[in-house]
Fold:
Amino acid sequence: MNITPKSKNNMAKKKSQPEYENLFTEQGALRVHSREQYGAVGSDLFINHLRQYVRGDAPVPMMNVRDSRTNEDVGVTFSDELLQEFSRDERQIKKPLEVMMKYGFGHYCSGGRNGIFYVRDNEEQLESAAQKGLRKHEDTIRSELGSPPNDPLKSVKAVWHNDGNYRIVGFHSGKQKSIHLIGYAQKDS
Structure:
């Protein structure tokens, strides 16, 4: 299901309402959720933005995380399906969001760490789920990443400690310094 956000002009009329507080800059531009903002107010602002997006009252939520190698920002976006899942049970996003904001993008990991990492060669179930999503939605994924067709995309996973043994998978475009997360996948046993 695709959700079409209302225009920014419609949102500007409502921004004085409490739930819109701090979602826009003084100039009316949408804020990208950042690590600094998360440290100050936690996940509430992102979750309020998510609610507004699902209702069609705001553009898609985006955030910046820190690249552990370069210390630069990496943009993170989410598929409509994943945002819909989060909106059905907001508890699903709190811990992954906290971990992504705190630890950022760590590139490679041999296990035991939280954050966003490339899917390892031996993580066949995660890679398979990511590739299935890519085959189904490649145009949308590349559009969200700002990635041309010849830009190789690497599968990524968001890792946090959870009882369900699952991860959020998506793709990283190195050229565009961006990540698009598409859905949940069961971790290899």
